Amino acid sequence: RKIMALFDEYQSRENAKHTLRAMKENARQGFWNGSRPPLGYRVVVAEERGAKLKKKLEIDPIQADKIRLIYKLALFGVDGCGPMGFKAICNHLNDNNVRTRDGGRFGIDAIHKILNRPTYKGEHHFNARDHKTKTKRPEEEHAICAVPAIVTADEFQAVQDSLRLRHASFMSPRFLAPGTLLGG
Questions:
Q1: Dihedrals phi, psi of 146, to nearest 5 degrees
Q2: Burial 112-141, CB ≥16 within 10 A → b, else e
Q3: What tens digit of pLDDT does each residue of 76-127 get?
Q4: How confident is the model over 2-12, as pLDDT tens digits?
Q5: What's the chain look like in SS3?
């Protein structure tokens, strides 16, 4: 029984290795491997290969406008008043009744993920995290899948630079909080 259990365990590991390799190749070819697509995208059937349906991501026009609004708020703010942070964007969207795909309210974590996800500039990273430990994998293990871009690479980079400059490791949080007397 122990020998059979060891053989089954080995076979299971081999199957997992081959499945992951196939999914990485599928992603490199630009196909979606499953799961729920990011906000702003929808899954469409791209082609049929025998009984298998190959799917790709397509921009969902209604949801994509929300993503563009979030990036605009992060760069310019409301009416050009200056860049907004995660919480300010979240509050603005919820106050103006802008909802998620499911009709829920936006949270700070959702805004953080949207502003930091390279999928929106046209490159989805498959296999970016270890599913067991939830840790980031090295960049060379990622399979990059080309998807339609919702924001330009320049807009994405401008948001990343803005977020990095306002990060607490670059600037003290007391200078970021509005209303701090002589804080600037």
A1: -75, 125
A2: eebbebbbbbbebbbbbeeeeeeeeeeeee
A3: 988 878 888 899 999 999 999 999 989 899 999 999 999 999 999 999 988 8
A4: 999 999 999 99
A5: CHHHHHHHHHHHHHHHHHHHHHHHHHHHCCCECCCCCCCCEEEEEEEEECCEEEEEEEECHHHHHHHHHHHHHHHCCHHHCCCCCHHHHHHHHHHCCCCCCCCCCCCHHHHHHHHHCHHHHCEEEECCECCCCCCECCHHHCEEEECCCCCCHHHHHHHHHHHHHCCCCCCCHHHHCCCCCCCC
